[in-house]
Protein: Reverse transcriptase zinc-binding domain-containing protein
Organism: Pisum sativum
Amino acid sequence: MRLIRDKVREFSAVTGLTISIPKSKFYFGEVDEESNEIIQQTIGNFLWSGKECFTRKAPIPWDHISDPVSADGLNLIYLKDWNKTTIGKLLWNVFVKKDRLWINWVHLYYLEKKDVATYIPKTANKYETKKIYHLFRGPIPKVSWRNLFYGNIARPRVTFTLLMACQDRLPTKDRLLKFGTIIDGKYAYYGFQERCRLLFFECEVAKRIWSQVLNWLNISHRSRGWDTELNVISKMTSGKECRKKLLKLAFTETVYAIWTTRNMIIFYNKKEDCLKSKDIIEKVLCRADKSNKLAMFCNRL
C-alpha cells in the first residue's frame, strides 16, 4: 500500500494531475490467505484505533461490521467472501464470454481449447456480483432499529457512536468492570452503577435534555427507556418527511452529546450542566443547513 501511495504521489508531482479517490479502485492479485488476514487486520486496526499498528480494541467482530446496515453493520466488504465472488466472476467470463479477446487468449494458450470444468452454463445470463456475494455471506437477520441509519445525515463519528450504543458496545463502566479495567463503576451523573441503558434516557438528566429537543421539534413523546426508545424512534423515523429526518438526526446527536458529556465529566472533571439541549439543536441546524428542504423546515419551527 505504501509503494502504491508513493508511486501515485510521484506521478502527481511529475504530471501535475491528482488521482480522484472516489473514482479509484485497487485490485490485488495472487494474495494468499495469510496476506489476506494481514490486510483485513490492518483495516480493523485503523477502524478502532486510527492507526495501522496492532490493537486488541475491537468491541465488534469484523464479520459483524461487514454486515449490511439493516443488520446493524457498516456494510464493509468481507474480503474472504469478496475474493470468492470475484474469482467466480472471472470463471463465469471464461465460460460464457468467448467473444472477448482476452478470453480467447486464455482458451488458446492456457486451456488449449479444453473446458474449464465439466459443467458449462446452458444460457449466458448476467453474473450478478452483488447477489453472489450475499449468497456467500449467508442469511443475516435484520434489526428493529435499522431505520435510524437509513439516510441519516449526522456526522460519521456521531452515527458510529449510535451504532456502538445500539449494540451495547460502548466502554461503559459496567463493561470495564467485567474486564477488570477499573474498580469504580459509579455513574458519571449520579452515584448509581453505570450501564448503557441507564446512561441513555433512563436518568433524569438525559430525559430532560431529550424532552427539550423533542419540544423544539414539536413532537409530543415521553421517553420510556433505552430499548423501547430505540424501537419507537425507529418507527417514528420511517419515511422521507422532513420532520422524520430531523428527528432521526436529533436522536443521533443527542446520544452522542450524552456520551461525550459523560466522558468530559469523568476525564476532565466537568459538571453535568455542560450538557445542554441548545448545543444539540445547534448541531442539528448545522447539519440540516446542507439540505434546502430541511433548512426551510427548520426555519418554520
Q: What stands out?
A: The CA atoms of residues 89 and 127 lie 7 Å apart. The radius of gyration is 25 Å. The chain has a mean pLDDT of 80.
